Amino acid sequence: RPITYSGADDDGRRQNRRKLSMPFVSRIRRQTDYNVFPSSIPIVIDNGASYFRIGWAGETEPRVVFRNIVQRPRHKATGETVTIVGDQDPALMKYFDCTRSGPRSAFDSNVVYQFELMEYILDFAFDRLGANGSVIDHPILITECVCNPVQSRSKMAELLFETYGVPAVAFGVDAAFSYKYNQLHGLCKKDGIVVCPGFTTTHAIPFVDGEPVYKGSCRTNIGGYHVTDYLKQLLSLKYPFHSSRFTWEKAEDLKLEHGYIAPDYASEVRKFQEGTKEAEEKTRYWQLPWIPPPVEVPPSEEEIARKAAIREKQGQRLREMAEAKRSSKINEMENELRSLRFLVNQLDQVEEDDIPSFLSDTGYASRQELESTVSKVTQSLRKARGEPKEEPDESEENTDSLNNEKYPLMNVPDNMLTPEQLKDKRRQIFLKTTTEGRLRARQKRNEEELEKERRIQLEEERRRENPEFYLEEMRAQYKEVLERVDQKKRLKTNGSNTNGNQKTGGVGRGERLSAAQRERMRLLTTAAFDRGKGEDTFGSRDEDWQLYKLMSKDHDEDDEQPDSDEAELARLSSRLQEIDPTFVMKAEEESNQTSGEAQRVRPLTEEDYKIVIGVERFRCPEILFHPNLVGIEQVGLDEMGGASIRRLPHDDGELEERLTSSILMTGGCSLTPGMKERLESGMRMIRPCGSTIHVVRAMDPELDAWRGASAFAADLNFLRNAFTKVDYYGKGEDWLRRYQIRYNNL
Q1: Nearest 5°: phi and psi at 219?
Q2: How far is CA 394 from each of CA 130, 372, 391, rounded to the nearest angstrom?
Q3: Which Pfam families does UniProt cross-reference here (predicted)?
Q4: How many angstroms separate the CA atoms of 387 and 218, rounded?
Q5: 403-454 per-position pLDDT tens digit
Q6: C-alpha distances in angstroms, 702 versus 57, 66, 480, 582, 638?
């Protein structure tokens, strides 16, 4: 399991981590029953970009193996930053906020460059190994990549010597240790080539007389990480609605379980394109969890009757409430009318001069206003009771008499009025005109409502006579009006310059403007030239400023008025929604099509949750031989062997035969099925006819590098290949540049 450290300041960080991790390590030691090793036994570390392996020299298995990653999330409860090394435990990670801190590696490609993260990893590894003292009093053999930069090597030596106080350190290449280990077991010879497809890079190193010749080595920046990432991308593009399920870890499992190398990539692709039986047998399926959607059962007749009864009951309640409200309103209006009539009767007994003082407390200014109010309340009461309206002649006579009493100056000539009376006359004319306009508008609305009710009644009668014919007719009308509205929108947007159904080319901006907008554009373009080429005197006259009124956007009211076709379209749409449950408005269809979510024509079925892994099985590992499939313009595995042979300083044909007769594959990617056969056939294509080509896979491509390093460190001459603190402080970085171990001791 991963170990967590409490967040601490940079000062004393190492001491705090050691103290906090001691109880955890002591618990591990009780569970695993570690042997007590003397301080002279070296510690062997295989520092790979994917996995970190550490153990004691002379053993055949590493004691601790974990992923070489570090993550520093915050605890959700306390907000404290903690450090998690190795694989992530889902049960542990639910207590941390990982949104701002993802897994990080100390490697850039295959070179260590983040030594702060490397320190966390070494702390964790030493604690799990049981070396929990203040000083690591054991020599260390640690692996590195081919031709590791001296800066990375010196920083690693500085970390081991000054932070952990190790007595001696030795550096070796992981692929070389794997080759020497398999040479001890007779799988390869002294002269040969080791091809190591790793996590982020692939190396090819030639061996001559048991020693690696680094001048002939070559590297390609592609490895198992790129294969997994390519598989993840292909599945996410193939099944976009399941992209959240294709995590990097799941893609890694699918690659290890189903991936293989095709003997001939082109012919293998052709089989899957033709859908042959062999391709069907090689296809794998991954069924995701799927729950069938609930089946909608149509309501029974009893349920329909029950809902209808409920609706009828609710409607009855609403009608009763409306009737009670209407009765209450009629009572209020009757009381008001009785009080007004009583006031009129009282007014008849008052003298003319005392009328203003009598009405001052009632809120009415004159007798005419009081009688007008009585007339209005009477009309409202008759309307509320549902009684017929008064005859038009009587209402017109009453209206004329009321107008004469309310506006006495209307019919008086102007020459007979004083200036004050002329002002009152103009005010009376304005009030009368406004009142008549409101009455006409109200009458027009009433007529429109009556016409609308009459039309609705006629349509309802037609629908009852022949429902199917009425529905088809409504659909045809809707389609016709919709086409007219769309055509108007297209003309307004793109102009009218068309040729049949095809547009004649680009449409100018002027053709997309309305009439008022085009008029404003004309005024703007011609205003500067109306004065001629003389002095610019625009604005010197008052009429010049009328131009701004003409250019105002307020004159677009006519263009912005709702079109009659649009109103008719809205009416037809609402009517179709009432009588046709399958009707869908065009606006809703367009909104569904333009929404951010992918429009699903049908609900997802069980087949949609079945992930088909066919051509992806061999297409992803193929990038090891053709990196240009993912945009990396470098050579593949088969060409790397030929490139290593050409780089050797020897010009000996027999040596080339010996090298190609002992090609060892090691590294995690070499476990992919079909790798050995494909590499052998690729080498035959670049070598002369009749050349001896023999490719073997390491006994354990993942652990042979550590086992070879363990056997090398267990040799009594190991310390001769290591350098101590004295060498580090005395010889410095230049000596590290020339440092190289001798593998023939193994």
Answers
A1: -140, 145
A2: 114, 14, 6
A3: Actin
A4: 106
A5: 666 677 777 787 777 888 788 888 888 888 888 888 888 888 888 888 888 8
A6: 17, 13, 73, 63, 21
